[in-house]
From TrEMBL, chains A, B:
Taxonomic lineage from the root: Bacteria, Pseudomonadati, Pseudomonadota, Alphaproteobacteria, Acetobacterales
Family (UniProt): Belongs to the peptidase M20 family.
Protein name per the record: N-carbamoyl-L-amino-acid hydrolase
Species per Swiss-Prot/TrEMBL record: Neoroseomonas alkaliterrae
Pfam families: M20_dimer (PF07687), Peptidase_M20 (PF01546)
UniProt cofactor note: Binds 2 Zn(2+) ions per subunit.
Stored NCBIfam families: hydantase
PANTHER family per the UniProt record, alphabetical: ALLANTOATE DEIMINASE-RELATED
Record keywords: Hydrolase, Manganese, Metal-binding, Zinc
EC numbers for this chain: 3.5.1.87
Length: 400, 400
C-alpha cells in the first residue's frame, strides 16, 4: 500500500490557508485575486510533483500524470465560500497532490466555482463534462455583486482560453475527499465516512398572491393575507413531511419574503423558497407528491392562490460499489471500527463527474459539524488518516 | 345650520391635487418641494377666508380664526404617502377651510408628517401637544432615504422657527374628517361613518434564535431551525387569536425575516413583526396575554428560544360622546339611514389631539376600500355630503 507523506500534506494545506487568510479561515471567492493566486500555487505544486499543470477558460486547474494508466482522477475545488473555512474543497485538491506524491497514477483537478459565487454554480465540473454552454456563461452573474461572469473571467486573465473536457476512457474513476460538513461522524465517535451517494436537491418557489391592504382598516373577514396562507402551508408541511420522508431526508424553508414587508400592511404577496434532499429517487418523488398535494389543499382552503414552481430537480449521484468497497477495506485497515457508510447531504463536484465515470467520496469529520464559516475545522490526525485511507482505497481500486 | 359651498370645497380639493400630481393621485412626501408648495397654497386659502395663517418649526400650518370663541379646531394633514391618494389627509384640511368659509368659528390646521415619512411619525400633532422633544428631532431620519430630519427641515426653510403649541382652553373640540380607508361603509351601502374611537396598535418584535447550518448535512433531529419555530408560533396565533379577539379586532404579521435567508442554509435567526389593533383596552390586554402565553408555550416546546419585545403599546383614543351625538344627528339629518358608528382601524392626528381636548372624526367611504395608493378615491357627492354633515355637526356641538 502507498504511504502518504502526512507532514507534507498538512504543510501544503496550511500553506494554501495563507492565501486569502481570514481569521482562522479563508476568503477566496471564485476568480478573486486570492482565488487566482491559489490556482497558481496549485499549478506550482503540481509541477514540483511531476504532473503537467494547466488552467482552462473556466478556471479549472488540471495536473496531468505523465506516466501510463490506468489513471484515476482526484480532486475537488479550491475557491471558498465568503469568509469561510480553510478545508472545504481545498482538502480534496491537496489530497490529490498527496496521492500523486505517493506515486499513484492520478490526475489532480480543482474545479472552478463549485461554491456557486456565480449563477449556475459548479461551473468547472459542469464545463469539464461538457454541460456548461457559452450562452450560460454569457448570462451568468456574480451572486455577490452582479459582475457578469465574462467580465470576471477577463479580469482573472482567463478570457479566450479553451475549456478542457475529460478525455474519454482515460480514468478508471474519480475520488473526492471532502469534509463532512455535518455532525454525523462526530456525534457517533467515527473518523471516516464512506459516502454512498450525493443527495439530490429538489428546490421549489411557492408564491401566494393576496391583496395588499391597510392592516388597520381591513377586517379579518375581508383580508386576503398572502403571508398567512404561506404560514398555514408551511405548518402543514411541518406536520406531513415526517410521514413521507425517509430516515435521512431533510427539508428546509430557507427564505420567506412577504411583500411589501411592512408592519402595518397586509402582505399582498408571499414567496417561499423550499427544498428537500434525499439520496433515493423514490423518496424524492414521494416528497414532491406530498408537497404538491399540500399546495392543492391550500388552494382549496385559502383565499390567496398558491403556485408552485420547481426550480431544480437533480438526480441523486450514487457512488460506485467497487470504489466504495475499496474505501471500506482501506478504512477498516487504517481505522478499524471507526468508520461508516453515509450519504452526502451536500452537493459536490463528484455529482457531475459521476455522469462520465464511476465516483466515490470520503469524509473526515467536521468539528462541531461547522462549515461555510471561518471556524470550520478538522483535527490534523483525522485529516492525515482520511488521506491515507483515500490512498489505500485508490490503490485497492486500481488493483482490483 | 351653516351651508358649505360644496362646489368651492371640491374645487379646492382639485386645486390641491395638482400639487405633486401623480397619475390620479399625488406624491407629496413631508418637506418635499411639493409638500411645501401645498403648505403655501393652504396659507393663501386661509388668508383669503380671513384666517390668520402661520407655519411653525415642524411644518404645522395653522389658520387662526380672528373672531370670538368658543372655537373649534378642524383639520388633518396635507402631505401624502409616496405616490398615494389625493384625499387622505388633504380632505380633512380642505373641509376645515369649507367650515371656516361657511362662517363657523374654526381654527384650521394641517399637522406635519402624520404619514411618518420620518421616524416617529405624527410629528406635527405630537409637537403641537408638546410631546415631540428636540432630542427626537435630532435623532429622526427619513424612512425613504435616511436624510436627517434636521436637514430636511433646513432644506424646507423651517430651521430655527418656533414650534407652536395648542392654546389651553381655546378650543371646545377637534373635528377631523378623513377617508375611511376600508370597505366597511361601501360594503354596507352607507355614506357616512361616525367614528367611535381610534384603535390602538400594539406592536411586537418576536425573535427566535436558532443555529445557522447547512441545509443538506444537518439532520432534522439535530436542527435548530429558527424559521420553523417562527412558523409554528404564527400558526398557533392563527388558531388562538379568533378565540380571544373582539369582533372588529385585527392582527397582522407584516414581516418575517429569516437570517441569512438563503435556500440552502437553515435559518439561524427569525424575526417576526406582529401587531394587533382594537378600540378596547380590555380586548388589547386579552390579546397581549394570549400572545405572551403562546410565546411561553413555544419556549417550552421548541429548540429555538423566542423573545418578545413590545415596540408600541398605545392607548385607544375614544371620541367624545357629545361630539359623536352632534355628528349622529347631523348625519341622520343629511343622510337618513345611510350612516353608522364605527371604529377607526387606522391611526390619525386626532389620537394625539385627544390628549388635550375632546375629539371626533367623520368618514366618507373609500371606493373599493383603497388607500395609500394613487387609485384612492371617493365619489364627489359623498365628499360634499360628509363636509356638510361635518359643518352641521360642528354647529350643533357649538350650540349644545
Amino acid at each position: 500500500m502507498p504511504r502518504i507523506d502526512a507532514e507534507r500534506f498538512l504543510r501544503d494545506l496550511n500553506d494554501l490557508r495563507q492565501i486569502g487568510a481570514y481569521k482562522t479561515g479563508v476568503h477566496r471567492p471564485t476568480y478573486s485575486p486570492q482565488d487566482m493566486e491559489s490556482r497558481r500555487w496549485l499549478m506550482e505544486r503540481m509541477a514540483e510533483i511531476g504532473l503537467e499543470p494547466s488552467i482552462d477558460g473556466i478556471g479549472n486547474v488540471y495536473g496531468r500524470h505523465k506516466g501510463p494508466g490506468p489513471h484515476l482522477l482526484v480532486g475537488s475545488h479550491i475557491e471558498s465560500q465568503n469568509y469561510a473555512g480553510w478545508l472545504d474543497g481545498a482538502l480534496g485538491v491537496v489530497a490529490g497532490l498527496a496521492l500523486a506524491r505517493a506515486g499513484l497514477p492520478v490526475d489532480v483537478c480543482a474545479f472552478a466555482d463549485e461554491e456557486g459565487h456565480f449563477e449556475g454554480g459548479f461551473l468547472g465540473s459542469r464545463s469539464i463534462i461538457g454541460e456548461l454552454s457559452e450562452e450560460e456563461i454569457d448570462r451568468s452573474r456574480s451572486r455577490n455583486d452582479g459582475t457578469p461572469l465574462r467580465e470576471a473571467l477577463a479580469a482573472a486573465g482567463l478570457a479566450g482560453k479553451p475549456r478542457m473536457t475529460l478525455e474519454p476512457g482515460r480514468h478508471k474513476g474519480f475520488f473526492e475527499m471532502h469534509i463532512e460538513q455535518g455532525r454525523v461522524l462526530e456525534s457517533s465517535g467515527l473518523r471516516i465516512g464512506v459516502v454512498t451517494g450525493i443527495v439530490a436537491i429538489w428546490q421549489y418557489r411557492i408564491v401566494f398572491e393576496g391583496q395588499q391592504n391597510h392592516a388597520g382598516t381591513t377586517t379579518m373577514a375581508e383580508r386576503r393575507d398572502a403571508g398567512l396562507s404561506a404560514i398555514r402551508l408551511l405548518a402543514r408541511i411541518d406536520e406531513e413531511f415526517p410521514r413521507v420522508a425517509a430516515e435521512r431526508s431533510v427539508w428546509t424553508a430557507g427564505r420567506i419574503t412577504l411583500d411589501p414587508g411592512a408592519p402595518s400592511i397586509i402582505p399582498g404577496r408571499a414567496e417561499v423558497l423550499f427544498q428537500f434532499r434525499d439520496v433515493s429517487p423514490e423518496v424524492l418523488e414521494r416528497m414532491d407528491a406530498a408537497l404538491r398535494a399540500l399546495v392543492r389543499e391550500s388552494n382549496r382552503r385559502e383565499k390567496c392562490p398558491a403556485t408552485i414552481e420547481q426550480m431544480s430537480r437533480a438526480t441523486p449521484a450514487l457512488c460506485d460499489p467497487a470504489m466504495m468497497a475499496a474505501l471500506d477495506a482501506a478504512a477498516e485497515e487504517e481505522a478499524p471500527g471507526a468508520w461508516s457508510r453515509m450519504p452526502s447531504g451536500a452537493g459536490h463536484d463528484a455529482q457531475y463527474i459521476a455522469k462520465r465515470m464511476p465516483v466515490a467520496m470520503l469524509f473526515p469529520p467536521s468539528i462541531g459539524g461547522i462549515s461555510h464559516h471561518w471556524t470550520e475545522d478538522t483535527k490534523p490526525e483525522d485529516l492525515a488518516l482520511a488521506c491515507q485511507v483515500l490512498a489505500n482505497g485508490a490503490a485497492r481500486f486500481l488493483a482490483a
